[in-house]
Amino acid sequence: MALTGTLGDFPVPDVFQLISLQKKTGYLTLKASETEVVTITFLEGTIVGADSLSKRLEERLGNVLVKSGKLTKEELSKALEIQKKTLQRLGHILVTEGFIERETLKNALAIQMQQTIFRLFRWKTGEYNFEPQDKVEWDKDNVEPMSTESIMMEGVRIVDEWPLIEKKIPNFDIVFEKVPLPQHPIVDEREESSSLEDAYSGFGDFGALIPKKEVKKGEEGVVRLSQNEMMVYQKINGILTVQELIDHSGLSEFDTCKALFELLNRQLIKQVVAPIPEEEEVKKKFSVLRGLGAIGMYILIIWVIVSVALIPIHPLDYFPSSSSSYIKDHHVVATRILLQRVQHGVWIYQMFYNDLPEKIEKVSENNILPLDALKDASGRPIIYNTGEDGYTLAAQSKDGTLMDDLSLFSAKVGD
């Protein structure tokens, strides 16, 4: 008789316990979504297989063996080719071809199966269905039956401790780097802590965990690490993500994260903070400048309007270098204001890039000024030339001639 229900009414540990107590043989399928489907194989109440629809066991096995250095990519490719022709299990091929030792395969399969199962204990919703069978298919040569009771106890412990770990490691995309130490850590043969609650009494200031007892150190202050911590510590290089560390370490997902958690709390590693890409940094700076530029634009517009309105009454006191013959030429007035604005834009460009723009359009391309601001009052492009000492901005009069009144020279920043 099939056993069917929802995890909301009958959670994963209870389902496992029932199958274990009744020493059932068959396949348990758990489904959280269309893509999250896991099948556990039971043999007389023990676990002999675990596979996921989203990522098949053999696919994970091959990739993890490669990433952990137990297998080369070429060897995996050759094994997969053989598998296509013979339809044999990948593990069997890897061992018979001499690519890996049988013990290596057994350990890798056990870790991958446990990892698949332990994730189930964090499922809060979903459906389950157990189909009893007289016999089941499983890899007898390379898989040792696992005690369902031991798996349940470990799974419950993981569920209890995972929220503590998530406070320090909220996702698997984080990258860590080592904190410089006077001496390299050494391996301590002490027992692994059975529970984080045994090692820590709670959280202190700024989310730091308070250890119940002092961390062991060597005679001269050498840091001592457990075997798991050392395995993970040696892989940390400021490049690998947490997920990649899990794949490379040869440990389970939980054991790797727990080791990282301990290393973090002992301040032996720290998170790598990704620098803001240069383009993003420039955009942030320019966004501020654009805000200031908008204010400056309004001031310039008012200035032009006031200047033009006062031209019949006053000479252009606003521009001491202006020639009196062009006092009433609105084109000259407006263009000189535009030239000064472009001059300010070039100065901003130099401040950010420590060099002159190779062409004036670079000021617009880097969002310092709009493209239309690089034209004179008649809509013609402003002339821009660079030299060893600086640069020149110029514009033409209405009749197309270059004029001293419409020419500005500026030295390079720092000259």
Element-level helix/strand string: EHEEEHHHHEHEEHEEEHHHEHHHEEE
Strand order of the largest sheet: 1-5-2-3-4
> What would you report as the Rg, rounded to the nearest angstrom?
35 Å
Largest sheet: 5 strands, antiparallel
What does it look like?
The chain is built from 13 helices and 14 strands. The chain is α+β, with helices and mostly antiparallel strands and 415 residues long. Strands 1-5-2-3-4 form a 5-stranded antiparallel beta sheet, covered by helices on one side. Helix 2 crosses helix 5 (102-120), helix 5 (102-120) packs across helix 6 (148-168) and helix 11 packs antiparallel against helix 12. A hairpin with a 2-residue loop joins strand 3 and strand 4 (46-52). It has helices at 12-21, 57-67, 73-86, 90-96, 102-120, 148-168, 196-199, 227-235, 242-249, 253-265, 278-310, 330-353, 361-365; strands spanning 3-6, 26-31, 37-43, 46-52, 127-132, 176-178, 186-187, 200-203, 209-211, 224-225, 269-271, 383-386, 390-396, 402-411. The radius of gyration is 35 Å and the shape is elongated. The model is unreliable at 201-210, 212-218 and 304-328 (pLDDT under 50). It folds into 3 domains: 3-159, no CATH class; 176-271, Orthogonal Bundle (Arc Repressor Mutant, subunit A); 278-411, no CATH class. The protein starts with a strand and ends with a strand.
